[in-house]
Amino acid sequence: MAENLFSAGTPAQRIRALLDNGALTGGETHAHGSLIAGTGVVGGREVSVMATDRQVAGGSLGVAEAQALSTLLEQSHAAGRPVVLCLDSAGARLDEGLAALGAFRQLYRHMLDLRLAGLPMLALIGRDCFGGASMLAATCAKRVYCESSRLGMSGPAVIQALGGATELDATDAHAITALMGGAARVQLYQSDQLCEDSFHDFRHAARDWVAGADATAQLNLHHQHTRLGTRLLANGMGPSPPKNVEALPLVLQEIIPPGVEVHKMDGVLVGRNGNTSPNAFFGFIDGAPVGALAAWTLAGECLALADERPGEAVTVFLDSPGQAPTYRDEKVMLSEFVAHLALVLSSLRQNGHRLTLQVLGDAAGGIYVALAAPAVRVVALPGANVQMLPPAATARVLRRHSAPGGVEDYLRTGVIDTLI
Predict the structure, then answer these.
(1) CA–CA separation, 39 vs 295, rounded Å?
(2) What is the pLDDT of residues 225-273, one digit of tens each?
């Protein structure tokens, strides 16, 4: 019956179902737009719990929601409470524009840092979990799905808007479920779980996880990188040999010192030469969408740098309209590759590498967030164009065109820290 389905429940119903006594501590629910959050007891242990409301702007996360979730995460870490996120969300709130993007950048920075610090986090996927929400889920230690769950870096409407119906027909429910449904997602990672779509089963999944949640458990990024690389190979997406770069764009010639050896690997610029420059240079500079292989390649280069040259400054360049809206990339769960890259970059910063992001051209969506959230500073060069999503995708979702932001908006909303 529909009233017993976790995927059909309201945020309050989902939270009540998880908690031992059915109520948040103090008997109050803290609502912030499309988000309800608080503390309660699960399996005899105090936890922080959050649920998005898909009836409010598709459960999307705007400025208020991002700030509230940031506070919840910080308080959870300070108190040693595990975190349970009930996600049913379209991602960052498009109609709040750059303000939502800037707020999400700050939220994701907090989440990355706390994940690396060992804060236990669990994601329970209700129905839809797209865009930024999928990055939150992918950053958690574990995800629990049901058959009705759908998770993707790009939602079906965005994939069709940018890639066409031949990439994915947004009206084909069977194809969408086969690609990004819960049963498909749990095949990718053995620690994830598929359960029945019921309050009872999700409650038991949460209690089992909370019982074993360990705040001292550290994420091994090298092991995660190997696991994701194996997934790419299994799907015919192995790495290519590096190619020399004969001539850099003029703007990069002015930034990268002469003598630095520069090459490209799977869409990633790599420039490293410690004898010539104490700075490593990486980035996506071709104006193309970033897929799973490119994100994994950049993460690998950064892990190698951390091992070989501790503390070396890192400059990352960005000119990309965002994540690749392709069937192939969603099949391997692009969200997890984007989150992995963000975690690696955050680890660099935490270990003394001064990380700067320089936006050369387009910057949008989850790729922007994955690079900007870990950065000490985000710099906009002349010609930088920061946006929530490419205009075609925004128009498809909002059913209207939105005006681009100006440089003053970049600084005001925090998507850019410095203009050049």
Answers:
(1) 35
(2) 999 999 999 999 999 999 999 889 999 999 999 888 899 999 999 998 7
Q: Which two tokens stand for residue 116?
A: 């690396």
* Maximum alpha-carbon separation in the chain: 68
Q: Counting beta carbons within 10 angstroms of the beta carbon of residue 399, is it exposed (0 to 12), middle (13 to 18) or buried (19 or more)? A: exposed
Single out the residue of 121, 67, 114, 92 nearest to residue 343, CA to CA. 114
Sign of CA dihedral 252, 254, 257, 258: positive
Range(s) of the domain holding residue 90: 2-212
Eight-class DSSP state of 366: H
How many independent structural domains does the chain possess? 2
Same-domain status, 195 and 246: no
Rounded-to-integer distance, Cα 45 and Cα 102, Å: 34
Domain end point (choices 184, 212, 240): 212
Show the 3-state SS of 108-166: HHHHHHHHHCCCCEEEEEEEEEECHHHHHHHHCCEEEECCCCEEECCCHHHHHHHHCCC
Determine contact, residues 228/239, Cβ cutoff 8 Å. Answer: no
pLDDT tens track for 44-74: 999 999 999 988 887 889 999 999 999 999 9
Vertex 11, ends 73 and 342: CA angle to 5°?
Answer: 35
For 101, the token pair is 């993007």
